[in-house]
Amino acid sequence: MSPSFSPSKILRPLILHLDIDAFFASVEQLRNPRLAGQPVAVGSGVIASCSYEARSHGLKAGMPLGLALRKCPPLVIVRGHESIYRCYATRMFEICQNWSPLVEEHLDEAYCDLTGTEQIYPDPAKEIARLRDAIHSSTGLTVTAGLGRNRMFARLIGKFHKPNGLGYLEPEQEETFLLRLPIEHLPGVGPRTVEILSNLGIDKIEQLRELSRPALAGILGRHGESLYERCRGEDHRPIGGREIPRSIQRGTSFDQDVTCPRTLDAMIEYLAERAARYLRQRGLEAGGISLQVTHSDHRRDRRRIVLAAPTALDPFIIQAALELRLSMEGRRTAIRFVGIQLDRIRLAPTFQQGDLFAADIDAPQADSQADSQSGQRWKQILEQVDQIRMRHGHGALLRGSALTLQSGHNRGDEKGDEKRARTGLERDRHGLILRTSCLTR
Ligand SMILES: [Mg+2]
After folding, report:
1. Which CATH class is domain 7-168?
2. Which among 138, 168, 197, 289 counts the fewest CB atoms within 10 Å?
3. Residues within 5 Å of ion ligand 1 by Cβ?
């Protein structure tokens, strides 16, 4: 586990994992020097990220801000600036790409495959120090690096050298290191898996090893099979260039609970647009969509549908989201939070079937053909819209409905009185600043 290691000892393959320390909070401290050295939390409702000064008071991501303030009264709370965070992460990825032949990007983390770079990097420790310096001098951020023979070990060892550290696991140390860890350190083990296994009295990786492959598969399905390998230090997942997220969420809470269906629909349209744009930017499309609302009495409602065909086009996603909203009608309580989630994400096919009879637009058409033609037109329109937004920010072009949101007033009151239901959302050039920080802008 020593940060200085001899290259002759390093087994190939070799994977480097880089992780920005206290990402959102560090960026906020860089942007505002008065926050340097202060306990800072980024988030709304709950902590999305907090500085190491805040962590020393026992604060951590996911903690409600009210509790955080009680634990640490001098805490400075900042609302997220996702677009700015994304720029910082992108800069780090660019530096990594200049340095490593294969880089995989994950929000504020990067995996670099250094397999076969012995000739250009005879002393990896020195090169990694240089890389971390380059990231620091370009962005002002510190990163923690972990180096191991696969992605799991690289990430795991880095966790024990935060912040601003470099960890390397000697091959002969792997076994002892792994066995003493709690199971939640293994990739893919979330709270649900921890709960299932802990009900069986399994908390440590050592205990997990006692289960046979069929037994683990019986308890956890296919996931159990991969866990059988992970707890033995095996992780054969390759380092891939492009990440396909399992789902994409966009959501926000409101300053005041919203009662007007039109305001709610406008927000749903806006969130759907943001999510759809994210899909298109990455050449992806989604096959499923869910809508989640939290009522003022804290009750949650979630509905999901599978789309007839995967898409990345605003009108189809918006239509599906609004249908879900209509299906929720019935409860007469105000809405505190609304969010949409796209799932069944896949790469969009690069080749589109040409339309043989496109010129004959007056001919009677089957529904599917009409859909595909309207899809083609929307695709062309959205390409232009995306280009404008790329240059001037998402806020440069907004749907009419979103304009009512940014004015902050509930204009949908049937009686036209002055009753105001402020969404309370601020706006920057990237559009409305959503309350739920997510890096996938
Ligand atoms: Mg991080």
Report:
1. alpha beta
2. 138
3. 19-20, 23, 108
